[in-house]
Specification:
The chain has 81 residues and is an alpha+beta fold. The chain has one domain. The protein contains one helix and four strands. Strands 1-2-3-4 form a four-stranded antiparallel sheet, covered by helices on one side. The chain starts with 21 loop residues before the first helix and ends with a strand. The mean pLDDT is 88. Bound molecules: zinc ion. Residues 55, 57-58, 60-61, 72, 74-75, 77 line the site of zinc ion. Residues 1-21 are annotated as: Disordered. Residues 1-11 have a biased composition (Pro residues). Residues 12-21 have a biased composition (Basic and acidic residues).
């Protein structure tokens, strides 16, 4: 019978995100952005949707094009192409 009290275990040491260098965080963000861009491009191709430049009204999303029109999925701005 084991009567020894449970030992508290320290959590593994982890570098707080604030300790990571700006360069490391930027590199991670850039890679994440590339992953998202590739995914978006692939998804658009499979769906037959054109991905155009950033919305000229809000700049919060890329314009998506179908049937001679592009629209912004964020603000709903519509333009003919
Ligand atoms: Zn917009």
């Amino acid at each position: 019978m084991d009567s020894s009290p449970p030992r508290p275990t320290l959590p593994p040491r982890r570098e707080p995100s604030s300790r990571r260098t700006v360069h490391e965080r930027l590199a991670a963000l850039e890679e994440s952005q590339r992953v998202l861009e590739r995914t978006l491009t692939g998804l658009a191709r499979e769906a037959g949707v054109l991905v155009a430049g950033p919305c000229p009204r809000c700049s919060k999303a890329y314009m998506l094009g179908t049937g001679g029109m592009v629209h912004c999925p964020h603000c709903g701005n519509r333009l003919s192409i």
